[in-house]
Write a structure and sequence with these properties.
Belongs to the inositol monophosphatase superfamily. The protein is built from six helices and 14 strands. The chain has 260 residues and is an alpha+beta fold.
């Protein structure tokens, strides 16, 4: 059995290769199109990165399952103790638009838990990483969330979260709302305290949040779904019911303010 440290080293190597491929397409002519069922855009770069990652990672760990946004569902992953959970390019719209805020999100599970994780932003030369037995790092340096309370907190989320219908007695907390295109990056930004929290009240695909959830947890943030429950991964639906990622004090204040 591989240790999380060894899996993390593998993910870091793979993420660097992914970045090289992505930057070869970025801000150059490339094909992109919309997926069926309003599932968002995809580009030839997404597929090229996905193919490389699958070849590299499954060759190194042939007994691991595979779950990726850009691969056909493989139910055999549910029988594997370990599984790769991958978003080849998170923030594809930003990538296609030539913006820097896209990332590669790579994670490994042990059962329902994430044990190794990398979020790599090649255009920003930034890599977040963690494994289950060590600290969360940004470019090799330890990170930690903020210790702020909800008054004046800066929360990475989308506009609809400010709808009074989501909050007890219609009282929207006095936080400032910001947005970044990659959900994986949002979790990492909350983990390092550049923003105070990342919140989503929508169902989230596992590949968008698997890596960032471990990085935030190992940084010292409280990481749960929208109901305050522990996230579980490599499930049949491959979805988590929302997310709240913040320092423990702010996390508790957000959770207690939500209508549930």
């Amino acid at each position: 059995m591989q240790e999380p440290e060894a899996d993390l080293e593998l993910l870091e190597r793979a993420a660097r290769h992914a970045g090289q491929i992505a930057l070869g397409f970025w801000r150059n002519d490339m094909r992109s199109w919309d997926k069926a069922d309003d599932a968002g855009p995809v580009s030839e770069a997404d597929l090229a990165v996905n193919d490389m990652l699958r070849d590299m990672l499954t060759a190194a760990r042939p007994d691991y399952g595979w779950l990726s946004e850009e691969s056909e569902a493989d139910p055999s992953r549910l029988d594997a103790r370990h599984c790769f959970i991958i978003d080849p390019i998170d923030g594809t719209r930003a990538f296609i638009a030539g913006q820097e805020g896209f990332s590669h999100s790579l994670a490994v599970t042990d059962g329902e838990k994430i044990v190794a994780a990398v979020v790599h932003l090649p255009a920003r030369n930034t890599t977040y990483s963690a494994h289950a037995n060590g600290p969360a790092l940004r470019n090799g340096q330890p990170i930690a969330p903020s210790d702020t309370g909800i008054d004046g907190a800066t929360v990475l989320t989308y506009r609809a979260v400010s709808d009074p219908g989501h909050w007890r007695d219609g009282q929207v907390p006095p936080f400032r709302r910001e947005f970044r295109p990659s959900l994986a990056w949002r979790l990492c930004l909350a983990a390092e305290g550049k923003f105070d929290a990342a919140v989503s009240l929508r169902l989230a695909w596992e590949w968008d949040i698997a890596a960032g959830s471990l990085i935030a947890e190992r940084a010292g943030a409280a990481v749960t779904d929208r109901h305050g429950d522990r996230m579980r991964f490599n499930g049949p639906r491959a979805m988590v019911d929302g997310l709240i990622v913040a320092g423990p004090r702010l996390h508790g204040q957000i959770l207690s303010g939500l209508r549930r």
